[in-house]
Amino acid sequence: MSFAADVKNELCKAEHSRKQLELLSKGAAYAMTEDGEGCFFNTENKRVADSIADAFDSVGKEYSTGESTFRGRTLYTVTLADKSYAYPMPDCSGDDAFGVYLRGIFLVCGLVANPEKGYQLELFLHDESKCRTLLSMIEEHGMGAKLSSRRGSSFLYIKESEKISDMLTYMGAMMQAMEIMNVKIYKEVRNNVNRSVNCEAANLDKTIAAAQKQADDINYIFEKRGEGYLPDELLQVAKIRLTALELSLSDIGKMLEPPISRSGVNHRLRKISLIADTLRGEDNRGE
Questions:
Q1: Using CB atoms within 10 A of its CB, is residue 223 exposed (0-12), middle (13-18) or buried (19+)?
Q2: What top-level class would CATH report for the domain 3-172?
Q3: What does the sequence similarity comment in the record state about its family (predicted)?
Q4: How crowded is residue 135: how many other Cβ atoms within 10 Å of its Cβ?
């Protein structure tokens, strides 16, 4: 089952008063596709079709239902005899009232993407004038959406996870709104962990590369001049470095007698590197 179906199923579970059923049914009528004197909508979700049909029945509006098969899928159709029922627009000045009205619209023409794959909520009203009217109502209630069109059909959409979650909460789909935020939190934690791991891996690569360079310098000195060429304080560090490239400078410092700080080890390794570079220069000139 899709996330959009989960949202609609949650909305269908809501109980409504007589006034709310009128708001729900008017929202549904507003979102339906006009056809002659009437209007209709198709859905694969039988619960949605039954909920809208029950709402029309509760307010005494003439409607019909049907069932058909399209490309192997069962479609449920609800047809309202009089499309003018959607007008005039109901009084939705209160947030609760508009939430129920918007619920009816979403059940008929709403889509919402699985948050695991992306954030997108769409209301396909097809008619640009209807979209603009609904957009004004949405903005009046402190929410936002954008107007667009696809293949000649106008629709409203939201791409921000917080705004989608707010709208679902507004309509009464609290559980699915929470699911969006849970997925968002999980993604953020996962991304932070990945960034941390990548950063640590990059730092480890740099550390190993630096350690290998230090080992190359030490081996060059030993090969060309012998271990005795280095003073004792540098020789101690050199021998420990050769035993394990993975040791940090702090670990090397702790293994010395007497122990020294990380910066002290770094200073000695720099001296070794300078000695190796000097010897390389002398050897190159001798050649």
A1: exposed
A2: alpha beta
A3: Belongs to the WhiA family.
A4: 18
CB 8 within 8 A of CB 107: yes
pLDDT over threshold 80, residue 285: no
DSSP 38-86: EEEEEES-HHHHHHHHHHHHHTT--EEEEEEEETTEEEEEEEES-GGGG
Residue count of the chain, please give it.
Answer: 287
Q: How many CB atoms lie within 10 A of CB 35?
A: 11
Residue ranges covered by each domain of the chain = 3-172, 188-286
Cα–Cα distance, 67 to 149 (Å, whole number): 29
Read off the pLDDT of residues 109-129 as tens digits, 9 standing for 90 and up.
999 999 999 999 999 998 999
Is the predicted pLDDT of residue 283 greater than 90, yes or no?
no
Q: Helix 232-243 vs helix 262-286: angle between axes, to the nearest 10 degrees?
A: 100
Please state the φ and ψ torsions of residue 17, each to the nearest 5 degrees: -80, 175
Residue 275 in this model has a pLDDT that exceeds 80: yes
**What CA–CA distance (Å, rounded) separates 77 from 1?**
20
Contact predicate 241/252, CB 8 Å:
yes
Residue pLDDT, tens place only, 22-65: 999 999 999 999 999 999 999 999 999 999 999 999 999 999 99
Q: How confident is the model at residue 282 (pLDDT cuts 50, 70, 90)?
A: confident
